Fold this sequence. Notes:
Elements: H1 7-14, H2 27-49, H3 54-65
Amino acid sequence: MGLYPTDAIENAYNHKHHNTLELGFTLESEFWNGRLAMVGFVAYLIWHLNGYSVMRELLHFISYSSR
Length: 67
């Protein structure tokens, strides 16, 4: 077996479009899950670096909704 995948493996992998949004446990949904997790992590990191706190914001939101 060589270093590179065979044509059969490449054809089986590359014939699906990996940006389609499919429900269930599919390769495409795992791609989207990873992408959205990265976006969420970067958004939280920017939010945290700007001096915001998750607990403070949650308690602030709860105090306004209980009025």
